[in-house]
Write a structure and sequence with these properties.
Extradiol_RC_dioxygenase, four-stranded mixed β-sheet, 2,3-Dihydroxybiphenyl 1,2-Dioxygenase, domain 1, alpha/beta, single chain, globular, 3 domains
Length: 194
């Protein structure tokens, strides 16, 4: 295994470009990603590295892409996808709180098993499996990111507050104080010049 030395330099990323999954047949992918999750099916071409597969592209709503390699000779197998070291544990997608409040009922209507609502302190989540056994999480943050900041800014500040308190996990109070710290840096005419 190659380990980078600290002086090897970093390769700074600018966001997730796309995530590609190995799927079964084409229609299983369309039915799940567009039919259940509402991600428009936006593009298809052959898998340029394997002409026996098709490469389907779906828009998860943020301008990025979820892509699926499909093959009509592969049948859907709902056996739990491996969670061994190096495997993907789950994929999480953001939904609005309004949509989140409908998720359980809509999964129940489709007779799809799910975890029910999970309180994560700073967000709520529901987990269920895709037709190939991959765990999917639908979630929403319980806070609005201050203008000019990123989710990561709020999470870093909340983490530091949590650690200073010795709390087990981030709670709403940590998020509120983090947002207060981040917004305190905004300029105001009532502040005295330095």
């Amino acid at each position: 295994m190659h380990r980078l030395r600290t002086n090897d330099g970093k390769l700074p990323t600018e966001g997730v470009h796309h995530i590609t999954l190995v799927g079964a047949d084409r229609q299983t992918s369309i039915d799940f990603w567009e039919g259940l999750l509402g991600m428009p099916f936006v593009f298809e071409q052959p898998n340029l590295d394997n002409p026996g597969e098709s490469h389907l592209y779906f828009d998860p709503g943020d301008g990025r892409l979820i892509t699926i390699f499909t093959n009509e000779d592969r049948a859907a197998d709902s056996t739990r996808t491996s969670t061994e070291v190096g495997a993907v544990h789950h994929l999480a997608f953001t939904v609005s709180q309004s949509v989140f409040d409908q998720v359980e009922a809509r999964l129940d209507a489709r007779q799809m098993g799910h975890s029910g609502r999970k309180d994560r302190g700073f967000m709520e989540s529901i987990y269920f499996e895709d037709p190939l056994g991959l765990t999917i999480e639908l979630t929403y943050y319980r806070f609005t990111v201050p203008e000019g900041r990123r989710i990561a800014d709020v999470m870093i500040a909340a983490h530091r507050i949590r650690v200073a308190e010795g709390a087990y996990n981030i709670q709403q109070s940590h998020i509120a104080r983090a947002i207060e710290q981040l917004t305190a840096t905004r300029d105001s005419l009532s502040k005295r010049p330095a």
